[in-house]
Amino acid sequence: MLDYDTEAAVYDETRGGTPRAEAAAAAVLTLVPAGARTLLDIACGTGIVTERLVRPGLRVLGADAAHGMARKAVDRMAGAIVLADVRRLPLPDASVDAVSAIWLLHMLPQPRTVVAEAARVLRPGGVFITTVDKDQGHDVGSDIDAVLAPHRTRNPSDRADLIERYAAGHGMRPVGEASFTGYGQGRTPSATAEDVLLGRYASRLAVRGAAAERLAVELVALPDPGSRRPDPVHRLIAFGTGRPGAGPSGASEQPQPALR
Fold first, then answer.
1. Model's pTM, two decimal places?
2. Residue 57: C-alpha distances to residues 34, 39, 60, 103, 182 (Å)
3. Which residue pairs from 143-148 have beta carbons closer than 8 angstroms and sit at least 24 positions apart in sequence?
C-alpha cells in the first residue's frame, strides 16, 4: 500500500493531472441529481477532482484520512475539507444529498463498511457514486495486460456485483452509470515493472518476492518498454436510496436543511 502522506507531493502530476480530473468530475456530475444541494467526496486526495465537482447550488465537501493529501486539498478548497477516516465519517445521519468515491473501493480489502457509511450519511433521495472494476478498466488489451493476466487477483474488492450487493443491503439500488477516460494513465512496461517490485499493485496482483522479480523482468522485455499503452476507461455506478424521483434523472424538490 502506498504511503499517501508522502505520495501527495507528486500524486497529481503522476496520475494524469488536470485532464484526468476534469474527465472524472464531469462524469460524476452527470450522476448527481439536479436538486442535490450537498455532495461529500470521500477519500478526496489532493482535491483535484473535488474542486471540479462544484456547480451552482451544490455545496461540495471533501474528506481524506491522509494528512498530506488533506493539506493539498485544503490549498484548493479551504474550509471545505475534513481529515477523517471515511469508514467513520464525522457527519450525522441523513446529512448530504450525494457521496462520491473515486478510485477508492479497489484499495480496500473489505469496502462494505464504506458503502454502509455512505448510505448512513445520505438523505432520502440521495445517491452514492463510485468507481467500480478499476483493474478491469486498465485492461485495454495491451501486451502488458497479457503479461499481468495470470497474476491478477481473482476476486477484486471493487467488483461491481459485490458493490451492488453491499448497496442493496442498505436500501440502495443502481440508478445510473457513466464512464470516463483515465487520461495520462496508460501504462508503460518499465513503470509497471517498477510498481510490481514496489508492491504498488498489492491489492490487484497475487505476486510477491521472487515471483514479482520474474514478472518485472518479463515486463521490461516487452517491445518499447518506455512507451505508453492506451489509457484506461473507468466505470462509475450511482446507487440511489430508492425514493421515487431520486437519481440522475430527478431529485426531490423538498427544501433541504443545511449541512450541520
1. 0.86
2. 9, 11, 10, 26, 28
3. 143/189, 143/222, 143/223, 143/229, 144/187, 144/189, 144/192, 144/219, 144/222, 144/229, 147/189, 147/215, 147/218, 147/219, 147/222, 148/192, 148/205, 148/215
3-state secondary structure of 119: helix
Distance between CA atoms of residues 138 and 126, nearest Å: 29
| Helix H or strand E encompassing 100 | strand 96-101
Average of pLDDT values for 91-98? 97
Helix extents (H) in 122-259? 134-138, 143-148, 160-168, 189-198, 209-220
Query: What is the Cβ-side half-sphere exposure of residue 122, based on CA atoms within 13 angstroms?
Result: 34
Q: Residue 243 — very low, low, confident or very high, per pLDDT cuts 50/70/90?
A: low
| Residue 245 predicted with pLDDT over 60 | no
CA of 110: how far to CAs of 32, 157, 159, 164, 197, in Å?
Answer: 25, 6, 11, 14, 24
Please state, in angstroms and rounded to a whole number, the distance separating the CA atoms of residues 157 and 33. Answer: 27
CB 254 within 8 A of CB 123: no
Which percentage of the chain shows pLDDT scores above 70? 86
**What domains can be seen in the chain, in order of their start residue?**
4-134+156-185+231-240 (3.40.50.150)
For residue 11, the SS3 value is coil
Give 148's contacts (C-beta < 8 A, 6+ positions apart).
192, 205, 215
The answer to whether 59 touches 77, Cβ cutoff 8 Å, is no
Computed over every residue of the chain, the mean pLDDT equals 88
Q: Which helix (H) or strand (E) holds 113?
A: helix 112-121
pLDDT for 150-169, tens place per residue? 998 878 899 999 999 999 99
